[in-house]
Amino acid sequence: MSAFLQQCRHLLGSDHVLETAQDMAPYLNDWRGRHTGSALAVLRPASVEQVAALVRACAEHAVPIVPQGGNTGLVLGSVPDSSGRAVVLSLGRLKRIRKIDVANRTMTVDAGCILAEIQQAAAAEGCLFPLSLASEGSCTIGGNLSSNAGGTAVLRYGNTRELCLGLEVVTPQGDIWDGLRGLRKDNTGYDLRDLYIGAEGTLGIITGAVLKLYPQPQASITALAAMDSPEQALKLLKLMQDYCGASLTGFELMSRICLALVAQQFPALPQPFAAGHGQYVLLELSSNESEQHAVALLERAIGAALDGAIISDAVVATSVAQSQSLWQLREHIPLAQAKAGKNIKHDISLPVSRIPEFIATTAPLLEQAFPACQLVCFGHLGDGNLHFNVAPPEGVGHDAFLANQAAVNRLVHDSVQRFGGSISAEHGIGALKRDDLAHYKSPVELALMRSIKAALDPQGIMNPGKIL
């Protein structure tokens, strides 16, 4: 491989071909600290032309490529395996915001742009890029697109796929496909854009994107509602949609144990209710009219929910600081879980109407199979996405409980399938869920996916071992 690495140094300069264990370490460890891979080198190109040249070199020498953005994924999709044969191709230096077209409501960006910086650039032009994730300060838009990320605003704006109009992609042969078209309508054959979004770098490397922008809302109002059950949360969702329509931009379900865990691990965060409740919903309204309009909509809907005994109590934020405080409760749930110890995570989606029944059915199955296990259930109820995480019983070692991971996953995923759901809602498949995908996808679907992979990447060098 010395000739290959020398070719990479010639293309990038030695400073951007990382080969020592110390230099490569941040690129080889997954976000959750569960896996450390091995790589031949980490390559850090600064342009799409350099990416294409590197891919051609990899194809020539049959070197596998693991594309990587911010490396914030949760399914081992952006880290190499332990063989040491692959290179990590980091897009972190491709971070230009190429163009903002306010009249067309689009922004063209490099794949390595940090999500929060894209949000800020849109805001500076009086626009909104609505994708919002807990990792937005470090994740990149290329990674968001490769995993078709969701986030807290999917209910109103859709997943990342719905927020992208065009792509620039380097193919496994090192060609550059320029699909950076800011068109809402382009009915000229197969939609290649949608093929690459969600493919987790297994079909090509996204190097640029045209993103949709929206008007900045005049006001956003946040509230936290308390209720007894997921059934009541579902009733609240229907009521809020009936009263508020498209103004409802966020609807997050959190169980009692979620907020108790946050209170335990982050005692400085305020707790809005003196007494505990079975379930909580964090909801957000955005209005393009005025703050008064948003407040009136929310007060009317909350009043109806209280009158109908759908909710037991509610707190409405009256300032930006209070709104941020309420959102911190939701955003600190994964952080509280991490501080409390290891757990078995599930990122699942279900028909919204069946979520209460799924929880009521699956929770007792887990309790029966793994007595006293703790179910930390939260997520985006408005779009049917639950983070259905299972923590060990009190006093049981986390590593010992993780030995049950395969059995826990099978129980949860079997239940998901019975309810017509998906084992991955917004995190992707990566290497972590690859075997589960083979178990739950139909033979026809798997054959079609393999055919696409073989046609576009016949050498099999693009992110091998991921998805398929």
Give a quick rundown of the structure.
The protein has 468 residues and is α+β, with helices and mostly antiparallel strands.
What distinguishing features does this structure have?
7-stranded antiparallel β-sheet, 468 residues, Uridine Diphospho-n-acetylenolpyruvylglucosamine Reductase, domain 2, Uridine Diphospho-n-acetylenolpyruvylglucosamine Reductase, domain 3, globular, Alpha-Beta Plaits, alpha+beta, 18 strands
Task: Give your account of this protein's structure.
The chain folds into four domains: 2-90, Uridine Diphospho-n-acetylenolpyruvylglucosamine Reductase, domain 2; 97-215, Uridine Diphospho-n-acetylenolpyruvylglucosamine Reductase, domain 3 (2-Layer Sandwich); 219-340, Alpha-Beta Plaits, CATH 3.30.70.2190; 347-427, Alpha-Beta Plaits (2-Layer Sandwich). The model has no long low-confidence stretch (mean pLDDT 95). A hairpin with a 4-residue loop joins β17 (374-380) and β18. The relative contact order is 0.12. The strands form four sheets. It has a seven-stranded antiparallel sheet, with helices on both faces. Strands 5-6-10-8-9 form a five-stranded antiparallel sheet. It contains 16 helices and 18 strands. The two termini are 27 Å apart. The longest helix is centred in the last third of the chain and has 21 residues, at 320-340. With 468 residues, it is of the alpha+beta class. The protein is 38% helix and 20% strand. It has helices spanning 2-12, 21-28, 48-61, 115-124, 141-147, 154-157, 192-196, 230-244, 256-265, 291-307, 320-340, 355-369, 398-402, 405-418, 434-440, 443-456, and strands at residues 17-18, 41-43, 65-68, 87-90, 97-101, 106-110, 127-128, 164-170, 176-179, 205-212, 214-215, 219-227, 248-255, 279-287, 313-316, 347-349, 374-380, 385-391. InterPro entries: FAD-bd_oxidored_4_C (IPR004113), FAD-bd_PCMH (IPR016166), FAD-bd_PCMH-like_sf (IPR036318), FAD-bd_PCMH_sub1 (IPR016167), FAD-bd_PCMH_sub2 (IPR016169), FAD-linked_Oxase-like_C (IPR016164), FAD-oxidored/transferase_4 (IPR051264), Oxid_FAD_bind_N (IPR006094). Residues 35-216 form the FAD-binding PCMH-type domain. Its cofactor is FAD. One of its GO terms (biological process) is respiratory electron transport chain. Belongs to the FAD-binding oxidoreductase/transferase type 4 family.
